[in-house]
Amino acid sequence: MTTLFEKDLSYSSLNTARSALSTIITVDGMSIGSHPLVVRFLKGVFNLRPPVPRYKEVWDVSIVLRFLKTLSPVASLSLKNLTLKLVMLLSLVTAQRGQTLHLLDINLMSIYDSSIVFTFNKPLKQSNPRTQVKPLVLKAYTHDESLCVFSTLKEYLHRTETLRVTGSQLLISFQKPHKAVSRDTISRWIRTAMQMSGINLDVYKAHSTRAASVSAAHRAQVPIQEILSKAGWSSAQTFAIYYDKNLDTSESSASQFQEAILTLQ
């Protein structure tokens, strides 16, 4: 643990190492992670290197939305561009993690006149015995069909219907043999869409869409309780500390765009 600390690893990295060691090492009848010396050591690391959010600022959602508007009409898009648009819209509108997008299943999907609803039969990161995972509702965005996740998803379902050989995962590869994709592939698609939009990938990772979308929703005066419900948080403090970010002015101008209101619609 001291060696890791001297290599300038963060508190969270050392805490992960403690958890890993605790699964295989016991001392005096207790796991190594519970040993008083280790506990005191980690408290000292926390005080010296307190965990901080990855981003102090976040990119402007309107930059990506302007790019996504150019990918229309959806019926004329290649399967690759249709997939990239869908994944990016899903990520922004739902403010969900890549794990959630990976678990979307067409067998657990219900289609209505102006919405599509996904339920889950596997636990999500925020799942716990006291909280039931809520369905994911994707509503039609009638203000601008070029930014409508509902119509984009319907086109994707139509386009991939004959390509699905096995399995029921929603997101499949746009290249043959069109198999279900991994979480890493979904993250790569999000990064690709960000890069095509002009977002700096040297600074921002795929998970930054979560902070970008909820921050845009907050600036658009979406009620905080609705943001917490959509993103799966129980505490407003989590949102305030880790996800509510100012705009990175190096990425965009300070002007606001009406399309930002679609975030967390």
Set out the fold topology.
Layout: H1 2-6, H2 11-22, E1 26-27, E2 30-31, H3 36-48, E3 57-58, H4 61-70, H5 79-94, H6 98-102, E4 109-111, E5 115-118, E6 136-139, H7 149-160, H8 183-197, H9 208-219, H10 224-231, H11 236-243, E7 246-247
Parallel strand pairs: 3-7
Antiparallel strand pairs: 1-2, 4-5, 5-6
Helix pairs in contact: 2-3, 4-8, 5-7, 5-8, 5-9
Low-confidence stretches: 252-265
Shape: globular
Strand order of the largest sheet: 4-5-6
Euclidean distance between termini CA atoms: 46 Å
Number of helices: 11
Radius of gyration (Å): 21 Å
Averaged pLDDT? 83
The biggest beta sheet reads: 3 strands, antiparallel
Helix/strand class:
mainly alpha
As a percent range, the share of helical residues equals 40-55%
Helix-strand topology string: HHEEHEHHHEEEHHHHHE
- Beta-strand content estimate: 5-15%
Number of strands: 7
